[in-house]
Amino acid sequence: VFDKMTDIFSDYYLWILFSQTWEAISKARNKELLSQDISERRAALLFIIQLIGHDATPVKISRYLFREPHSISELLDRMEAQGLVKKVKDLDRKNQVRIELTEKGHEYYETSIVPKNIPEILSVLTEEERKQFLSGLIKLRKAAIKLIGIRYEVPLPPIDVTPPLR
Amino acid sequence: VFDKMTDIFSDYYLWILFSQTWEAISKARNKELLSQDISERRAALLFIIQLIGHDATPVKISRYLFREPHSISELLDRMEAQGLVKKVKDLDRKNQVRIELTEKGHEYYETSIVPKNIPEILSVLTEEERKQFLSGLIKLRKAAIKLIGIRYEVPLPPIDVTPPLR
Q1: Contact assessment for residue A99 and residue A57, using Cβ atoms and an 8 Å cutoff
Q2: Distance CA A136, CA B23 (A)
Q3: DSSP states of A66-109
Q4: pLDDT tier, A74 (very low <50, low <70, confident <90, very high otherwise)
């Protein structure tokens, strides 16, 4: 029983460490974005909208982030008010909108992707360590998705891609 | 230049995947905590308060989470209202309080640590993969802390420990 409790604590520590690392990278990222008038969350959303492309509906976007569609809709409303995205109603299904970046959104997207903190942080891993870490993330992500009980397939961001052409 | 852009995109994809994995595990964890009237964020805070022990001040707690002290204070206020923690004024420095778990906080702590989702998710990694993943997290965390420019040492949760005795 005691060994079992030790295992549970050890597991939970690893989870706390995972959370700490995520918070630290988010903070580093927010720090470099301060001068750019955009938060990491919004910058990530611009990235995901670009990644999904023409079919970027609020529902699809929310799946990338494991968020409820209504909370993503609220964030998209605020980003629309900031002039970063616009809603386009040209889909067959009623009440469905596509999300597109505005000209300003494109500019913010391009300047927010280029900064250096994420590459600098990741550069501490060797090529081999990076592959191992990536493989660990993909396994953990898959196991978590199974436990959440999501029935639709959650899109995995492609890792080795060339940047989308405009 | 094109190779450099590809690297930047590849780095950013890895960061998005990291975020997705964190969100998915948080969601799995919140799902199992639903019946227990506590969120993962509050359960993690109970864990950290226990981990720090007697010296758990709001400032120390906030360092574990890379959050501003005021945002942690607000969360602690809400947890105090929920009866999970109490503030104790027995420190030498004025205006400083220690945070302690109440009896109810202890109960929530013990029942929220035991559930199965975190161990089940982590069990998909082999012993070797777990070590590699852990080592990757520690390196990334260190690199991010350096970029944030924090001057005090940020406590690292110990990984191989026996559970604290009560």
Answers
A1: yes
A2: 15
A3: T--HHHHHHHHHHHHHTTSEEEE--SSSTT--EEEE-HHHHHHH
A4: very high
Number of A/B CB contacts below 8 angstroms equals 224
**How distant is the Cα of B123 from the closest Cα of chain A, in angstroms?**
9
What pLDDT, on the 0 to 100 scale, is given for residue B128? 94
CB nearest A121 (choices: B48, B140, B156): B140
Is residue A154 predicted with pLDDT exceeding 80?
no
Residues in A closer than 8 angstroms to B139, CB to CB, are 124-125, 129
CA pair distance B162, A103, nearest whole angstrom = 55
Here the tokens at position B11 are 């780095």
What is the pTM assigned to this prediction?
0.83
* Rounded Cα–Cα distance for residues B5 and B156 (Å): 34
Which tokens go with B118?
């975190």
Query: A31, A144, A153: which is closest to B144 by C-alpha?
Result: A31
Say yes or no for a CB contact (<8 Å) between A16 and B143: no
Integer angstrom CA distances of residue A122 from B149, B151, B153: 17, 21, 21
CB spacing of A118 vs B12 below 8 angstroms: yes
Quick check: helix, strand or coil at residue A101? strand
Strand partners, B85: B101
Give residue-wise pLDDT tens across range A13-22.
888 889 989 9
Nearest CA among B131, B125, B124, B47 for reference residue A9: B47
B157 in Cβ contact with A12 (< 8 Å): no
Residue A57: left if φ>0, alpha if ψ -120 to 50, beta else—which one?
beta
Reported as a single tens digit per residue, the pLDDT across A100-134 is: 999 999 999 988 887 788 999 999 999 999 999 99
Q: Tell if the CB–CB gap between A47 and B159 is shorter than 8 Å.
A: no
Instruction: Tell me what the mean pLDDT of segment B50-55 comes to.
Output: 85
